[in-house]
Amino acid sequence: MKRPSGFTPQRPAETGGGAGRLPDDTPAERPDPIPLFGRAAPKQTSDDGGGVPPLVSAQVSPREARKQRKRVEKAEVRRFTASARRLRRNWLVGTGSVVVLALVAVVAAYTPLLSVREIQVEGAFRVNSDAVVQDLSSQLGTPFPLVDDTAIKAALVTYPLIESYSVQARPPSTLVVRLVERTPVGALATPDGFTVVDAAGVVIEESTSRPPNYPLIAVDGGSEAPGFLSAAAVLRSLPEDLFATVDEVTATTQDDVTFSLRDGDASIVWGSADESKLKAFTLTKLMAAQPGFDVYDVSSPSVAVVR
């Protein structure tokens, strides 16, 4: 039988001799898929050691890609803003601590927890401290920040012996009032006897006889005399050991203060109250070196004169 013309049968390739056919037991290698979004997943070797990579889809959806991009952006933002966030956190912690401490201080100060429940008077020798406490009793129960300084001053100015004072809060409940009393410098003769006065002429005490421990200020006109302030200033500037030996002081101006001593008839020309320590030192040395003179002039301590 004749075959139809125009048909040429194909001869199969010989086994093992050609390159166009794979062995029957070798699977065909599939090409790697082309990723549409993102990067392709790396090839992985199968666990059975056959070297055949598993079939992995490398396609990433747009939604997942956006999520990955946002995660990366957030991580970068956190990395670059770490120092700023740390600084802001420290600032908030510091500010919060200050505010809390301020609130605690205000609450503690303006509540009965820190209020005046006791008044203590210090430095009172001639002043009656019990009377001072009684006059300041209006401050009892008052929180320390609300203590009325004007009321305290109004109560203490009624005591002429108080030269100055200071007030200190001693938590939790004590108000301390420190007094500085006036320092007596001498006695003035009056029609009724004698008055002990300080350097400003304020009367500290009165007596019918001359006080034994204070020098007599012999000036015409009493504390209103022109020479009183000069004599009182000199007496106040004298060292204690020399002050105890002064018997009587006279003065008409600030530069001609003269006084006599209890244990002798010598007269001391002192001058003004300037350089009192140097004058006292010069007088001590001069009287020890040249005793028996009637006048010791130390108004100029560098050129002291005896007569």
Notes on the structure:
The chain folds into 3 domains: 73-108; 112-181, membrane protein fhac (Ubiquitin-like (UB roll)); 184-306, Cell division protein FtsQ/DivIB (Rossmann fold, 3-Layer(aba) Sandwich). It is an alpha/beta fold and 307 residues long. It contains 7 helices and 12 strands. The chain starts with 61 loop residues before the first helix and ends with a strand. The chain has helices spanning 62-80, 82-109, 129-135, 149-156, 228-237, 240-243, 276-289, and strands spanning 118-122, 162-170, 174-181, 184-190, 193-198, 203-207, 216-217, 246-250, 257-261, 267-271, 295-297, 305-306. It has a 6-stranded mixed β-sheet. It has a 3-stranded mixed β-sheet with strand order 1-3-2, with helices on one face. Residues 13-20, 36-41 and 44-52 have low confidence and may be disordered.
